[in-house]
Write a sequence for this structure.
């Protein structure tokens, strides 16, 4: 099953698996809006200056896969729910999703993709409001574990250094069960929170 990657997950993973959007075995895809956000947003230019080296590696879904009839239906539903102040049942506050987040959810739902994200609001909203249609999510560390199991990447010191950058860059925490799986697969402790 394909996994639709959001901005933060790409910035976490692209150095670890530069071919994640080119080699179909990685089962990853993204959308043009995410790619544009990575290369046009000022805070990413300053925080991730290395990202420019991967510009050609981030290939996007064709427009007709993103903007199909089902996409329009899901996008309208997502937009309406956000505009009407849908409450996050876990936190008790309204969801606040960006335009890109709304497009990611609609695209994932329309195409039967799961998502990878560290954004708890994004995944909670999709699960809470579209539980029957939502194919779920996988954390960036979960993707790494899957790639290691499938022999797509061989874990070494340089890759572990990239993983260590996640803590320094204040990336989203990873699930405890994925940290345990990572230790079992690599023999190394996950360096972040």
């Amino acid at each position: 099953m394909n996994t639709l990657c959001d901005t933060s997950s790409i910035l976490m993973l692209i150095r670890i698996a530069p071919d994640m959007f080119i080699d179909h075995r990685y089962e990853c895809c993204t959308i043009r809006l995410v790619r544009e956000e990575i290369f046009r947003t000022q805070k990413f230019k300053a925080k991730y200056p290395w990202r420019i080296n991967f510009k050609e590696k981030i290939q996007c879904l064709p427009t007709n896969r993103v903007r199909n009839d089902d996409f329009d239906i899901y996008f309208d539903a997502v937009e309406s729910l956000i505009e009407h102040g849908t409450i996050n049942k876990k936190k008790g506050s309204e969801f606040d999703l960006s335009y890109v987040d709304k497009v990611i959810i609609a695209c994932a739902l329309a195409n039967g993709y799961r998502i990878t994200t560290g954004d708890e609001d994004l995944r909670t909203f999709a699960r809470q409001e579209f539980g029957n249609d939502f194919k779920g999510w996988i954390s960036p560390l979960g993707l790494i574990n899957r790639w290691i199991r499938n022999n797509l990447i061989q874990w070494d010191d340089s890759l572990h250094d990239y993983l260590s950058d996640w803590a320094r860059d204040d990336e989203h925490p990873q699930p405890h069960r994925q940290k345990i799986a990572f230790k079992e697969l690599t023999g190394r402790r996950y360096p972040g929170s």
Q: What stands out?
A: The chain has a mean pLDDT of 94. The beta strands are 3-5, 28-29, 114-116, 137-138. The chain has one domain: 3-138.
